Structures are given as C-alpha cells and as structure tokens.
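Chapter summary example: a protein plus iron/sulfur cluster.
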Amino acid sequence: MAKGYIEFDYEFCKGCELCIQACPVNTLVLTTKMNKKGYRLVEDAEGKCTGCASCALVCPDAVITVYRQKKAS
Ligand code: SF4
Ligand code: SF4
C-alpha cells in the first residue's frame, strides 16, 4: 500500500527517465505531456509510491520532492 507521494517541479525536468529506472515499485511512467522545453513528463501512474526517495536521489536536476505520508484528498 502506498505510503508516500511525490511532486515534480516539471519545468526543470529533462525527461531523462533516471527516476523511472530507480523506482523499486515501478510506479513511474513517462507520459505524453510535455513541459515548455518539450520534454516528456513523468508521473506516478500507479499511485504506488512508498516515499522511499530513490527517484529524488537520482534526479540530476532535483525536480522531485518526496512526501512520506498519504496525499490529502
Ligand atoms: S519515492 Fe520511491 S516509490 Fe515513490 S516514486 Fe520515487 S522511487 Fe518510486
Ligand atoms: S530523473 Fe528528474 S529530470 Fe530525469 S525524468 Fe525524472 S524527474 Fe525528470
């Protein structure tokens, strides 16, 4: 069960996909949405984020902020 969530500072994302490869629960996917620079954006499509922070650690541009709690709805 997901225990965390992430937020992206999308305008700084370069679509390098390192975060997708780093995620141990494989919840990140490349979407067809693009930022202003034309890079495709990543999302937690499965909603399975555990808040482990692996994606944030590998992101070369510090695009990802990790929250270790369930997102308020
Ligand atoms: S914090 Fe961990 S579980 Fe959540 S998306 Fe990033 S790598 Fe995946
Ligand atoms: S690692 Fe960072 S820059 Fe690369 S796709 Fe993920 S969020 Fe974007």
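Key point: The mean pLDDT is 94.
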